[in-house]
Amino acid sequence: MVDDTKLNEFIGQILGDLGGALSVSLVRIGDRLGLYRALHADGPMTPGELATKTNIAERYAREWLSHQAASGYVSYEPSSGRFTLPPEQAMVFAEPNSPVYMQGGFDLAMVMMENQTLVEPAFRTGKGVGWGDQSQCLFCAAGRFFRAGYHNSLVASWLPALDGMTAKLDRGAMVADVGCGHGFSTVIMAKAFPNSTFVGYDFHPGSVEQARLHAEQHGVTANTRFEVGMASEFPGKDLDLVTFFDCLHDMGDPVGAARHVRQTLKPNGSWMIVEPAAGDRLEDNLNPVGRLFYAGSTMICVPTSLDQPVGAALGAQAGFAKLSSVISEGGFERVRKAAETPFNIILEARP
């Protein structure tokens, strides 16, 4: 027997979901054409004023603004016919250094849609889809999505949460940033600790090229370099710190990676592992954050891992218990949760 009240509630939920899905391309257009930035910089505007400011057609500006108002992304004042980007929404759409800047998330949503033709056949075969074979927007989207968290938390709270690490970095330490992608995390650390040396490794050559350009743009080439390297094979010994940002769960052989990290560290060195926030049980993750991470895990993380040797496929919602088991199996005696945010858990592993 169908419960009409529950049915209507669920239809309301689905309408919200479809509205969000259909908004992805419009949010990305607003970002790419500078519409949010213009509203943020210049305040309330009519469609004609926004069109003039951003050099777009007025008719498209009117329809786009109407959608944004219906979505609650901008506010509308009928008496003046002007649209406003409120300060709270500006933090999400128009301020790249905001801790809640989410434009990268919309880019990732588009990537997952493009990945469907690659991942759908893998559902039947059980095989993986290589990181380098996925949507070519993936690499920049992932970097952009994670950058805000690194910018706001890495130097301010994550590194200080490691035992004695900031003092080592201030004096001068040797650091390997493994799975560095476009190098946002590496460059942030290198700027904050000029006496230390940072080497970023990634198995995707295109990302390494972008990381090198990023280092040049931010003036940290003196203490930073980037190389192509696998997590289980990157060169180095007597390292003070090894960092893995949002990548251990993507690896085919995370135990092998942990074992190699153990071999590269000094006896008093540290391994910092930043992973998506997750509980140890499925029921702990049935929430809005878990929903996002399970989607990304299904379309990106699990296929990436299954394409590699071993293919452990931990998934983005692995949780502390599973992660600590992997790390311990790799030879680390001490694993602790050093810090956490609504989106990440930060682990410290010591030999």
Q: Overall mean pLDDT score?
A: 96
Give me the CATH architecture of the largest domain, please. 3-Layer(aba) Sandwich
Question: Which fold does the CATH topology of the largest domain refer to?
Answer: Rossmann fold
β-strand percent reads 15-25%
Q: In CATH's first tier, which class of the largest domain applies?
A: Alpha Beta
Notes on the protein architecture:
- The chain is α/β, with parallel strands linked by helices.
- The chain folds into two domains: 90 residues, Arc Repressor Mutant, subunit A, CATH 1.10.10.10; 248 residues, Vaccinia Virus protein VP39 (Rossmann fold, 3-Layer(aba) Sandwich).
- It has 13 helices and nine strands.
- The strands form two sheets. The protein has a seven-stranded mixed sheet, sandwiched between helices. A two-stranded antiparallel sheet has the order 1-2.
- Strand 6, helix 11 and strand 7 form a beta-alpha-beta unit.
Offer a few descriptive terms.
single chain; Arc Repressor Mutant, subunit A; alpha/beta; Rossmann fold; 13 helices; seven-stranded mixed sheet; globular; two-stranded antiparallel sheet; 351 residues
